[in-house]
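Lab notebook, design round three. We kept the backbone fixed and only want residue identities now. Task for the bench partner: fill in a sequence for the structure below.
Input structure tokens:
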């Protein structure tokens, strides 16, 4: 069980578990499975699949790094005891609508 040495640069980008899954994918698929000899030789299908998996794996790693590096909030919301609201005069006591009058019509 080994891919051709020509794919060593692609295989270096993948973990061993994905390499094993790729090997199983080619040798045991339902439609047109490759023999171990065919999978070990230079094959454009194998090359394109390994390129696809390497790109997909690199994107997954970048996404994990990006989501883990969110900065921490300097002040915990639990520590904030009071919230002060200032009156800027936008709301007034002048009621323009009389609900009792509208309901009694």
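Proposed sequence:
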């Amino acid at each position: 069980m080994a891919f051709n040495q020509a794919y060593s640069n692609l295989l270096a980008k993948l973990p061993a578990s994905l390499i094993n899954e790729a090997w199983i994918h080619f040798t045991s698929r339902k439609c047109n499975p490759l023999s171990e000899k065919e999978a070990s030789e230079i094959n454009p299908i194998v090359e394109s699949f390994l390129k696809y998996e390497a790109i997909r794996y690199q994107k997954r790693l970048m996404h994990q790094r990006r989501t883990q590096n969110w900065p921490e909030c300097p002040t915990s919301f639990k520590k904030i005891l009071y919230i002060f609201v200032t009156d800027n005069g936008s709301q007034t006591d002048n009621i323009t609508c009389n609900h009792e009058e509208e309901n009694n019509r």
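Keep this in mind before ordering anything: The radius of gyration is 32 Å.
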